[in-house]
Amino acid sequence: MHSSLLPKNQSKWSKRQIQILESIAEDFTVSTVQLESMATQFVHQMRVGLTEQKPSDLAMVPTFVTGRPNGYERGSYLALDLGGTNLRVCLINLKGNHELESHQKAFKVSEHLQEANVSELMDFIANSIKEFITSEHINAQIVAHPTDSESLELGFTFSFPVAQTAIDGGLLLRWTKGFNCPGAVDNDIVKLLQQALDRNKVNVHVAALVNDTVGTLLAHSYTHPGTYIGAIFGTGTNGAYVENTHNIKTMHADSDEMIINTEWGNFDKDKNYLPVTIFDNKLDRESINPGVHVFEKMISGMYLGEITRNVLLHLIDQRVLFEGTSSPKLNKHWSFETKFMSAIEDDTTGSLIPIAQVLEQELDLYINTQADREIVKFVCQLVGTRAARLSAMATAAVIRQGLDKGMLRNHGYPLKLSIHEEERVDQNGASKGADANRELIQVGIDGTVFEHYPRFEERMKQGLVELLGPHARDIIKLDIAKDGSGVGAALAALIATKTASASSR
Ligand code: BGC
To answer: Do 47 and 119 fall into the same domain?
Structure first.
């Protein structure tokens, strides 16, 4: 037992509290050695996915998106973003020079729709688009920037695992993140949407289908050409990256590069390498899709609160928290939201009164001592830190693939500063900090966990350093690509319509 795993300035915890918390801390702490072995396995599963048609872990979906935007693209496109409880419909005006304008409207996808027949979901989407484009404001926009074709061209960001068959087609592999609409799995998502648009007399043509990670990668490339990874750390998690087509054995491509959607949420499906705890297993068993996306369930916003709730209930049952008493609210599945964890981790006051407020106002837990509040905070830190370190592991593994075999071969491993950089490092080894000649590895990231969870980024960076060397901090740039999916969908529609008109010439 390492008592060093416990927080340093805790008030007086009982011997039993210390003993039980130490064992929980051990379960949730992921060492560098563990990260290393997972990263090695991750790269292995990436390579299996690039070779086998039906890999069991990482799907490694070729997206048919070849090449990345350079920021000079122009035109107006509709974009649709479906991936969680909100559907966003956007009109994106790409103005060239890395600039763009966007108008958007969000529509709530009700719990009923998340499990309704897929045709009902698609009718809802078609009608939301209709409502959006008939609003006068948007019509004025379209008139000002007409597209070439008669119907409006639309890019669809659909944030679920899809086996892409073309840039404008793909079969749903499985639902995730609480969706479970019958009639969609193994069917072409673009066809389902196009049929609904036609059925509802909406004059829109679905030109491209992309995953949100791919959208994020494209959107970030528009403002930061050369971006290598697009990642989401939000309700769910996933990453897409640029692969050298020589390495993709599951299809033939004429281009040099293609974006691959890794679907990393399903990494190590059989839990041979992941440090799963009894609390993760409980969550998985009680989820809508047991045995699927176990990795995602340890990382993303939909699940972190529930893992924490499972740990807190265990501590209550052991009588080392809240005097052994829970509340009806805390007893309820999914009642402990990830945003509560953010508020709890953000509390750096000595008295931890803000934590008491969360416990009392959100969860009716009125009996909470200073020790209770410290314990709740500590559990959030354990769950949140593990999530960030696992996220770093996935990101580092994708970077390793690029360093070993793919698009990043001009970087060394472990990451080294370039020759230009070395000249800028003074005799004491400190970087003089000029960015000018730095060849960055750019990662565009979207998602509430990355954006709002306290210290998530810092913890991720620490993991990257452990896996890729001390210069990872200087060379890897983790950048927020807010609402990347909408812009990315528009860029995908542009790429698709350009490719279609070039091949019909
Ligand atoms: C889906 C991915 C998506 C990710 C982030 C996962 O549940 O399988 O396709 O990219 O969530 O939204």
So the answer is: no
263 C-beta closer than 6 A to ligand 1? yes
Q: How confident is the model at residue 138 (pLDDT cuts 50, 70, 90)?
A: low
Residue 404 known to be catalytic: no
Q: Among residues 57, 76, 81, 159, which one is catalytic?
A: 159
Q: Is residue 370 part of a domain?
A: yes
Same domain, 173 and 216: no
Q: Write the pLDDT tens digit of every residue in 454-484.
A: 999 999 999 999 999 999 999 999 999 988 8
Q: 73 and 13: one domain?
A: no
Q: Which ligand 1 atom sits closest to the C-alpha of 240?
A: 10
Residue range 249-269: average pLDDT?
A: 96
Amino acid 3: pLDDT: 54
Give residues with Cβ within 8 angstroms of 244, minimum separation 6.
256, 257, 405, 406, 407
Parallel/antiparallel/unpaired status of strands 441-446 and 476-480: parallel
| Boundaries of domain holding 143 | 64-210
Question: Residue 1's pLDDT is what?
Answer: 44
Q: Where a domain ends, among 168, 185, 210? A: 210
Is any atom of ligand 1 closer than 6 Å to the C-beta of 296? yes
Amino acid at position 314, single letter: H
The span from the CA of 383 to the CA of 387, in Å, is: 6
Decide if 492 is inside a domain: no
Can 254 be counted among the known catalytic residues?
Answer: no
Does the annotation mark 435 as catalytic? no
Cβ atoms of residues 387 and 299 within 8 Å: yes
* Stronger pLDDT, 134 or 63, i.e. the higher one: 63
